[in-house]
Amino acid sequence: MSGDFPEQAAEMLQRLRGATPRVHCLMNTVVQKPVADGLSALGAIPSMTSSVDEVSGFVAKADALVVNLGTLDDQRRQAIRLALDTVQDKAKPWVLDPAHCDYSPPRATFAQELLARGPAVMRANASEFVLLSVPDTVVGVRTGASDLVRQGERSLAIENGHALTAKVTGTGCLSGAIIAAFLAVERDAFQAATAAMLVVGVAAEIAGETAHGPGSFEPAFLDALDRIGPAEITKRARVAHAQD
Ligand SMILES: Nc1ncnc2c1ncn2[C@@H]1O[C@H](COP(=O)(O)OP(=O)(O)O)[C@@H](O)[C@H]1O
Ligand SMILES: Cc1ncsc1CCOP(=O)(O)O
Ligand SMILES: [Mg+2]
């Protein structure tokens, strides 16, 4: 990764805004609206259905897919399998978020099964990440105070962010959806994931400068995703080679 990665991330964001990529989200029912709002603020176009009759058509029209296991049930398992058949037929990039797989062994088993179907990226928090074996073909993004992006020997840590991000439900799910939006415009999944997490972290820092708590952070975060530009990214970026 060259030293001018923040400039590359800024350029990717400009490409994303020019392309307005369609991101289909098989998203848990807790955070569908904030995830859709976050994608729209950034410049992507979200869609959210999980109907088994329609999911293949929606995924065929999308530029990327995010699969989030947060409120998993039998119907969603079926919808996910249909969606992955379509992404494989049409070679579209997709992201796995094994949300709350640490609460449910069957969910962790299903997440591991999905990892074998070739997501470009898996995004998870530390409690979820530690349970799963991520193949070298998949970029692993472990979020937290510092976001770790790893693939084989390549690893980077994004130090940008604000603690209030962790107090708003849905920010992890939104991170996965934003990674999918970057994958729609950048074929190098490692670079796309790193750029996405850098943009999320810088936007969180900007939001944290005016927020007084979770209730004011969420709208400020949306505004920051809408307004963030190359200058903020290159000026604020704190990206380091990861230690662990
Ligand atoms: N202590 C922290 N300080 C700053 N940002 C954080 C912290 N913990 C999590 N985040 C950020 O909050 C978002 C959600 O991360 P995380 O809490 O790990 O996922 P989840 O919401 O899925 O549990 C990510 O963008 C991450 O960078
Ligand atoms: C609370 C909850 N329960 C099942 S999914 C979900 C939302 C999790 O959102 P995030 O992982 O982004 O905090
Ligand atoms: Mg989560």
Automatic annotation (TrEMBL):
It catalyses: 5-(2-hydroxyethyl)-4-methylthiazole + ATP = 4-methyl-5-(2-phosphooxyethyl)-thiazole + ADP + H(+). The keyword Acyltransferase does not apply. The keyword Transferase applies. Its EC number is 2.7.1.50. GO terms for molecular function: hydroxyethylthiazole kinase activity. Pathway: Cofactor biosynthesis; thiamine diphosphate biosynthesis; 4-methyl-5-(2-phosphoethyl)-thiazole from 5-(2-hydroxyethyl)-4-methylthiazole: step 1/1. Signal peptide: none annotated. Keywords: ATP-binding, Kinase, Magnesium, Metal-binding, Nucleotide-binding, Thiamine biosynthesis, Transferase. Its cofactor is Mg(2+). CDD domains: THZ_kinase. It holds the Pfam family HK. Gene3D superfamilies: 3.40.1190.20. This is hydroxyethylthiazole kinase. The lineage of its organism: Bacteria, Pseudomonadati, Pseudomonadota, Alphaproteobacteria, Hyphomicrobiales.
